[in-house]
Amino acid sequence: MDVIRRNNIMLSGPGGQPMLFAHGYGCDQSMWRFVAPAFADRYKVVLFDHVGAGRSDLSAYDRVRYASLGGYAADVIEICEALDLRHVVMVAHSVSAMIAVLASIRAPDRFAALVLLGPSPRYIGAEGYDGGFKRADIEQLLELQESNYLGWANTLAPLIIGDPEQRPELVEELRNSFCRTDPEVARQFAAVTFLSDNRDDLIHVRAPTLIIQSEFDSIASTAVGRYVHEHIPGSEMVVLPVSGHCPHLSAPQETIAAIDAFLARHVRQIGPR
Questions:
Q1: Residue 77 and which of 23, 60, 83, 262 are 20 to 30 A apart at CA?
Q2: Using one digit for the tens of pLDDT, what is the confidence trace for 56-107?
Q3: Residue 69 maps to which CATH number?
Q4: Are 7 and 75 in contact (CB under 8 A)?
Q5: Is 214 noted as a catalytic residue in this protein?
């Protein structure tokens, strides 16, 4: 029950095979409202908030535990244990994609498949790898967050959504989500997100994996998505003809179709228990 309260877990669906949805940085479980209901008639849909986000228990936030993505991966495994979830299809956006990767490596018997939206194993470019950002870019972004949190939110939200003039309501929603997050938590999670390097973890993923990539994404480019695809054995990649880092918000029907097609090929659905 402590885990359920800590992560504000919400359940729906008939039971049986679980689909666990993990939101990205600065967001909460409401970001899945256009996608998760499409699976609630066939799966046990599990939504949750990372500690420090949404309606999670902020008192559970521990700077040491959450100093790396491993702490969030441990939470995912504890959620699976608390709810006795097995044969899990984990759908994860942005930084949660690497959290899902780590969780699946640590507890491979829990996971049937991974669906990764806009994944990036490293945001800063390195020799032979184009992560999309220079270290100076990330440092400047983190400094702006420290000195002017509202200005940082106003800068990052339209960058994440893409086409801000076409989807101003989504930009405003994301900006408000940033501003609801405790600033200290947001700063640490931002540093952990943008300074992490999980490239060496990809090869250890054994679950069937789908990468869903927006064609035009300023946060995680198609080159980054392709890198993830090439380094997770046997993975598949779908590029959606949309802009922005949140295809589950900007192109939910296309996202649902890609997930459905992938699961039909790779996951034998189990019935209610």
A1: 262
A2: 999 999 999 999 999 999 999 999 999 999 999 999 999 999 999 999 999 9
A3: 3.40.50.1820
A4: yes
A5: no
